[in-house]
Amino acid sequence: MSQVLVVNCGSSSLKFAIMDGSGAAPILEGIADRLGSEHSNITFKFNGQKVEQPLHEHDHKGAVTAIKQWIDDHQDLNIQLVGIGHRVVHGGETFSQSVLIDEKVLQGIEDCSNFAPLHNPAHVKGINEAQALFGDLPHVAVFDTAFHQTMEADQYLYPIPMRLYREHHFRKYGFHGTSYRYISAKLASLNENFGSHNTLIAHLGNGASVCAVRAGLSVDTSMGITPLEGLMMGTRSGSLDPSLLSFISDAEGISMKQALDILNKESGLKGISEISNDCRTIETAQAAGDDRAELALNMFASKAAKHLASVATNLHSVDHLVFTGGIGENSPVLRDKICERLRMMGIRLDQNLNQTCPRGEISQLSSDSSSAKIWVIPTNEELLIAQDTLSLIDKH
């Protein structure tokens, strides 16, 4: 069976997986860490084993070279790569769907770098290196922002002078689109009617957002021009009074950029709990009676519920509420806290089903009296990237 190499480049890391698009477990997966440092390494997970090794070249080229070498060294597995799928964070208004990569597409990704300065340049590096080593294979870009290009202007525009949109394209773009598209399709596969229903999806992890989906299309989402807008997250503050930036800058004697770094890297669960940005660690502390942990979890749930209720105003009804992402899939504590705050919408969680929800499986958690079906649906962005890549290769 044909396989795809899925690549997700960050500024100092590169995640990868080899998949056949069927939903089966990856043949190979792993991550290259600390790129740009002499301590860079790469981890391969294969056949239940994990092997870590240093990189000879400490950059994206070194990571892609190591992956190519691993494939060459395992000829017995008969890996038949037919293409490479690249996750790209920001596609701006240029890209509303996944595309085969050519010079024009690559330039378009670069042009969006001002909106995602840490991510898009890294994506370009990864694509260039992969093209150099796997040059004969087609490459596909799958954009986090593409799914939200169906939002109407009254949802994606900011209430700022229109010239700033016309001249600079300042607007809400939204993220986690690959996850939302996967969840929408998976929900539709459970029942032929579900695809036409109104759905709220909460993608909750270290990065967190919500989305309102009508008949499979995004109509509103919480993240904005960057992933900082919206919910409180692992280390991000989410939405707040913009004037706070200048107050922090003046009070701390730091630049606006440094103040923005605080909102991106030192806030959210980490900032409030003063313990960690990891929800599991905070829940353990909360269970032991830590008041800071309790406050952090309550704030996270409150912000999530508020944004779910907010985006729901763009739906005619709420037929489904789906939890996904690392926290959404694995934290009955936060699912309970969020649903409790949505009781005014008729949302009712079955406590027993919530507590006994099996890890990694699709589960329905709503009580018989709930106005909407409540689900846990594990997301799989890598699988969707592999499927998009195979589909575009078949078409062309």
From TrEMBL:
<keyword id="KW-0460">Magnesium</keyword>
<feature type="binding site">
    <location>
        <begin position="278"/>
        <end position="280"/>
    </location>
    <ligand>
        <name>ATP</name>
    </ligand>
</feature>
<feature type="binding site">
    <location>
        <position position="381"/>
    </location>
    <ligand>
        <name>Mg(2+)</name>
    </ligand>
</feature>
<protein>
    <recommendedName>
        <fullName>Acetate kinase</fullName>
        <ecNumber>2.7.2.1</ecNumber>
    </recommendedName>
</protein>
<dbReference type="InterPro" id="IPR043129">
    <property type="entry name" value="ATPase_NBD"/>
</dbReference>
<keyword id="KW-0808">Transferase</keyword>
<feature type="site" description="Transition state stabilizer">
    <location>
        <position position="176"/>
    </location>
</feature>
<dbReference type="InterPro" id="IPR023865">
    <property type="entry name" value="Aliphatic_acid_kinase_CS"/>
</dbReference>
<dbReference type="GO" id="GO:0016301">
    <property type="term" value="F:kinase activity"/>
</dbReference>
<keyword id="KW-0963">Cytoplasm</keyword>
<keyword id="KW-0479">Metal-binding</keyword>
<comment type="pathway">
    <text>Metabolic intermediate biosynthesis; acetyl-CoA biosynthesis; acetyl-CoA from acetate: step 1/2.</text>
</comment>
<comment type="function">
    <text>Catalyzes the formation of acetyl phosphate from acetate and ATP. Can also catalyze the reverse reaction.</text>
</comment>
<feature type="binding site">
    <location>
        <position position="8"/>
    </location>
    <ligand>
        <name>Mg(2+)</name>
    </ligand>
</feature>
<dbReference type="InterPro" id="IPR004372">
    <property type="entry name" value="Ac/propionate_kinase"/>
</dbReference>
<feature type="binding site">
    <location>
        <begin position="326"/>
        <end position="330"/>
    </location>
    <ligand>
        <name>ATP</name>
    </ligand>
</feature>
<feature type="binding site">
    <location>
        <position position="87"/>
    </location>
    <ligand>
        <name>substrate</name>
    </ligand>
</feature>
<dbReference type="InterPro" id="IPR000890">
    <property type="entry name" value="Aliphatic_acid_kin_short-chain"/>
</dbReference>
<dbReference type="Pfam" id="PF00871">
    <property type="entry name" value="Acetate_kinase"/>
</dbReference>
<comment type="similarity">
    <text>Belongs to the acetokinase family.</text>
</comment>
<feature type="binding site">
    <location>
        <begin position="203"/>
        <end position="207"/>
    </location>
    <ligand>
        <name>ATP</name>
    </ligand>
</feature>
<keyword id="KW-0547">Nucleotide-binding</keyword>
<comment type="subunit">
    <text>Homodimer.</text>
</comment>
<keyword id="KW-0067">ATP-binding</keyword>
<keyword id="KW-0418">Kinase</keyword>
<feature type="site" description="Transition state stabilizer">
    <location>
        <position position="236"/>
    </location>
</feature>
<feature type="active site" description="Proton donor/acceptor">
    <location>
        <position position="144"/>
    </location>
</feature>
<feature type="binding site">
    <location>
        <position position="15"/>
    </location>
    <ligand>
        <name>ATP</name>
    </ligand>
</feature>
